[in-house]
Amino acid sequence: MDVVLTYRGRVVSESDIDFVQALIREHPAVSRRELSRKLCRAWNWVQANGAPCDMVCRGLLLTLERSGHVRLPSAKGSHANPLAVRRRPQRPEMDASPVSGSLKDLGPLEFRLVRRTREEPIFNGLIEHHHYLGYTQPVGEHLKYMVYALGRPIACLAWSSAVRHLGPRDRFIGWGPEVRRRNIRFIAYNTRYLIMPWVRVPHLASHILGRMAAMVPRDWERIYGHRIYYLETFIDPGRSPGTCYLAANWIPLGLTTGRGKDSNSHRPNRSLKQVLGYPLEKQFRRRLVEPA
């Protein structure tokens, strides 16, 4: 097979390009979106939950056009990127009176998955206005949780697809580039964790993380059709020692390089972060290096 390029882990050969060119000739009047859907169906290019890899496929088609391998139908209008023009989430109005005492005083905690529910704007607003990193819209597989006690939200947690390249994590697992590209989807990344600033309950943060370790893999498999075997996150040592993660038995693995995924130099351009990992089962290494 003559490999022309690799896009998001998918190898594209000369015969694949011939197929795409023939598909364009057969359907000259369809939109680029419909062309992408047809190609997904033809290649059986689907996510683990059976949904077509439509966005990734459209990216591949644009890459093929920009590199001169195909000529796509003319775009049927200009569509603004919804992520680029997304409005800043509004600050939710809620009871911000102090919550203190012990875990027992809170009573039962209720964990709600809020993505694509009426509560998602509240989640987004709380992260935007009370988390030091603010809110950014996740891309790809992701989950959003709100934790309730005493009838109101006390915490928010966001989980998403894992970072592709992470030296301390990759060395800890012991996988190479090819295996990582194949199995990176079996890791979930804790992108945001917020305990409401008016909540002061000892051991609450680590308790929630312990509960999450059981919930996230179960919900991920139910929604996305595949298991996850490992959780990860970053902390900024200049802001926090990550006490709640350490108390919940997360493992410190080392510091990032501080260069970011798009850096073209070997010099740090941002603060170094501590990488923390949490294996979800004893055989996590074997699960993450074996064929998908």
In short:
With 292 residues, the chain is an alpha+beta fold. Helix content is 34%, strand content 21%.
Report on the architecture of this protein.
- With 292 residues, this protein is of the alpha+beta class.
- It has two domains: 3-66, no CATH class; 99-289, Gcn5-related N-acetyltransferase (GNAT) (Aminopeptidase).
- 34% of the residues lie in helices and 21% in strands.
- It has helices at 14-26, 32-43, 54-66, 103-106, 120-130, 167-173, 177-183, 204-224, 243-247, 284-289, and strands spanning 3-7, 10-13, 99-100, 110-113, 142-149, 152-161, 187-195, 199-200, 230-235, 251-255, 274-279.
- The strands form three sheets. It has a seven-stranded mixed beta sheet, with helices on both faces. A two-stranded antiparallel sheet has the order 1-2.
- The relative contact order is 0.11.
- The mean pLDDT is 90.
What's the helix and strand layout?
Blueprint: E1 3-7, E2 10-13, H1 14-26, H2 32-43, H3 54-66, E3 99-100, H4 103-106, E4 110-113, H5 120-130, E5 142-149, E6 152-161, H6 167-173, H7 177-183, E7 187-195, E8 199-200, H8 204-224, E9 230-235, H9 243-247, E10 251-255, E11 274-279, H10 284-289
Parallel strand pairs: 3-8, 7-9
Antiparallel strand pairs: 1-2, 4-5, 5-6, 6-7, 9-11, 10-11
Helix pairs in contact: 2-3
Mean pLDDT: 90
Ends distance: 22 Å
At the first level of CATH, the class of the largest domain is Alpha Beta
Q: How would you spell out the order of helices and strands?
A: EEHHHEHEHEEHHEEHEHEEH
| CATH architecture tag of the largest domain | 3-Layer(aba) Sandwich
* Category from helices, strands and their pairing: alpha+beta
CATH superfamily annotation of the largest domain? Gcn5-related N-acetyltransferase (GNAT)
CATH topology of the largest domain: Aminopeptidase
Number of helices: 10
Low-confidence stretches: none
Count the strands?
11
Helix content: 25-40%
The largest β sheet comes out as: 7 strands, mixed
Strand order of the largest sheet: 4-5-6-7-9-11-10
How large is the radius of gyration?
22 Å
Shape estimate: globular
Q: Strand-residue fraction?
A: 15-25%
